[in-house]
Amino acid sequence: MGVVFYSSVVSSQTPQPTVRLSTEPPLSEILPFEAEATVLSSPVRLTLQAVDAAGKRLENAKIRLQILTPPHNPWFPTDFPIVEGTELLDIEGVAAKGELEIQQMLPIRGNYQLLVSVNPITANAFAPIQQTLTLSVPENWVKYRNFGILAVILLAVGLGGGLVLGGKQDIQPGEIAPERVRLLLSGAIVVAIASLLIINITAERADSHTQGHSSQKIEPSVVQSQAVKAEIMGDVSATVGQPAKLAVQVSDPTTGQPATDVLLKIKTTPAEDEWVAFAYGGVPDAKGQLTWEQQFFDGAPHKVEVEILPQPQARRQFSPLRIAQNIDVEGVAPPLHSRLIVLAYFTSLIVLGLVIGLRLRNRLVW
Questions:
Q1: Residue 166 carries which DSSP code?
Q2: In principle, which of 72, 153, 222, 346 could form an S-S bond with 231, CB 3.0–4.6 Å?
């Protein structure tokens, strides 16, 4: 028993192969995606390094990365409730130098789980690694500021209503309500009509903006030269909350054999904006393929672009090629219970202001 206990202690203290995570910007500066930001949001650069017990990189490896979004929180929903507790990305890349680097936009706040598995390309070259990393993303301080401003406005509305409705009110003959009550209701109707007009005008502008981008140039999803043939395969439509399966196939147009001596640069962008949702640069596997699963969280049409380049030292040299695939994304409305909870929060602020206003008015009258 002493020998077994001593062996277990020694093995637990011995350095083990591990996966190191580094981010750009640093962890303290990462913020979730902001749809209405005046400055375009940038994706987070995630770099995974697989190292052995001595801290040396594990070469000729395959690194698979799965990013899971923070779990669902019914009482404090995020900007994209449908995305909570889902898979954001699943990609496996060939890491000749033991490193995998991607760029990924993180849509919501909370703790992301990064499931990493490292396997050797050559059998038994090293022991496989399975590791779970956590990436914490705080809420943007602008959201707290905006919520504070809205809370003050709602409290002021309730306070004003309480001051108007409080105290003794006389109903004149022929009137169904006191004058102050009628004035308050009339003001509320005017505010509601103005709000509806603003919402309709904003929606009309957004629709015209979408139609203006619908005539964008469509690049081919299959391209062929004398050296290589490249094709984007997989889903052409997606739904928010569910990952879409995509793949790039590169082959020799003459022999039909997989082309593995090329570089692939993948970039996913919304069709109407310029920010980058996902980007990766790597090489295809032994089958000439690079596959991944990606979620389109904002519900807008996206464009997947792939640039194929020759490796510097490869015998196969050719001019860079570009292919693209448009992805139609179906948006999903937030769950009803999430909207009701938010409505209850806002209504409680108005009720609180109303109670304070009534008490102040009664004290003034007394």
A1: -
A2: 222
> What CA dihedral angle connects 183, 186, 191 and 196, to 10 degrees?
170
Q: Quick count: other Cβ atoms within 10 Å of Cβ 100?
A: 25
Q: Which residues contact 61 (CB under 8 A, 6 or more apart)?
A: 50, 94, 95, 98, 118, 119, 120, 121, 126
Nearest in space to 42 (alpha carbons), one of 23, 16, 58? 23
Residues 229 and 192 both lie in one domain = no
CA distance 364 to 366: 5
- Strand bridging mode 44-51 / 262-270: unpaired
The pair of structure tokens assigned to 317 is 């040299």
Full residue range of the structural domain in which residue 304 is found? 222-330
Length of the chain: 366
Question: Are 74 and 183 within one domain?
Answer: no
User: Model confidence over 236-263: pLDDT tens digits?
Assistant: 999 999 999 999 999 999 888 999 999 9
pLDDT tens column, 300-338: 899 999 999 999 888 888 899 999 999 999 988 878 887
